Amino acid sequence: MAIFGSLIKSAIEFREKFTSESQPILEQEKVLEELLKKAKDTLFGKYYFFDNILQCDNIQKTFAEKVPFFDYHQMNDQWWSRLHEGQTDVSWPGKPSYFALSSGTTGKTSKRIPVTDDMIEAIRLAGIKQVGALSNFDLPSDFFETEFMMLGSSTNLVEKDDHLEGEISGISASRIPFWFKGYYKPGEDIAKIDDWDERVQHIAENAKNWDIGALSGIPSWLELMLKKVIEHHNLDNIHDIWPNLQVYTSGGVAFQPYEKSFNALLARPITVIDTYLASEGFIAFQNRPETTAMKLITDNGIYFEFVPFKPEYILKDGSISQDAEVLNLSQVKTDEDYILIMSTVSGAWRYLIGDTIAFTDVERAEIKITGRTKFFLNVVGSQLSVNKMNAAVKDLEETFDIEIPEYTISAKRFDGEFYHSWYLGTNATIDNTKLAEALDESLQNANKNYKVARGKSLKGVKVTSVSPDVFYEWSGANKKKGGQVKMEKVMGEEKFKDWEAFVEENK
């Protein structure tokens, strides 16, 4: 009998029983007021007259009117760069203890996003909320006695001037509390290895010594790790070596495109719990098993705003127009795509994180990630967002009974006519013409804008199938393997030329 596990489970359930019901709209109003009060004497707060905003009857409305939107480059060039010059109290009191390095999906150059002590505390509290939510998933007591594998970036942070730098997953893992270290795998020594392939090799060699009950990480890199463990020990599936594996917490990207290939590595279904941790903060987590949507963390250091996802609001570089309509949590509707805007205890203000979301339940503040502003293909009026692309690829998987964990797409001219050129990451041997026809039909049936474009400027779809490994090697060559790195779903013309040349070289 799992006595210790029963005690832990009972403690979690007891705590949740006495946790007050969330009131997201009121919580957000309070969070904004707290952010403005704490930052009013910073350079940013003085420049945008936070003191005056706090005196207004409608703080949310005035804040939206007086403070512009910022993407990373605008925020960094105008404000955060001063932190690297030794200034303090720039956009948040003091100086940050960490900078999260994030190349994201845009290229080799890392973004350097401040992570303050207040943000570290906010992430810690969000983690406690997520652990508390486990009480809703009816997990057996013995689960709470197993070990937890976190596959993120290296925890070997770089010391620079008066702060440390690394990816947010590495920063978070480096601050694991002492009481959890006995449960945490792959452990401090392996987690500090910078080279991703070497780290995964060490995980594979040590896998037999661990009793893993839960996994956490970006789906694409986690799959590669599981495959390596299976290959190293000549197994049929991962449950052959980790029989008590019961939970996977995904994060940062929609899990659905990876679902089929991920499940193929298991002997039986496990509980998948989505989380949303970005370099800018811990945004949301799945709170209940009846839905795959995630609950926004509305009471903990982040104020959210939402811009309707309309082509006229999106500029060529992926940023948004300053005259774009913006809504607060009390004004949103379900099943509409919004560009996510954040103001945080790390001194990000009206910050474009680059993700699009949709609400599945406004009262509960539950969302799903629907894509990226830069992964929006509208060259010839097709208005394809990532969630529509994901749905079409899922249709292909079901129609042909194949796995397509990765893909990328660009609008490209062939003989003077525009086509959507798709590269599908699959080991299946289906004829590319059949895949293209099925993909085109699925998109036309599900998307009226795409159907209209197909009758005019968009002449068709072309498909090239390549091994999924090519996508992972591309990420390794252009950025870095593992961690928070995600594959570009949509590429511009120049980037796509580089991609096609890379594919040709790595056939």
UniProtKB/TrEMBL annotation:
One term under GO cellular component: cytoplasm
Biological classification of the source: Bacteria, Pseudomonadati, Bacteroidota, Flavobacteriia, Flavobacteriales
Ranges for domain GH3 middle: 297-362
Gene Ontology molecular function, alphabetical: acid-amino acid ligase activity
Domain (GH3 C-terminal) ranges: 390-493
Pfam families associated with the record: GH3, GH3_C, GH3_M
Protein name: GH3 auxin-responsive promoter
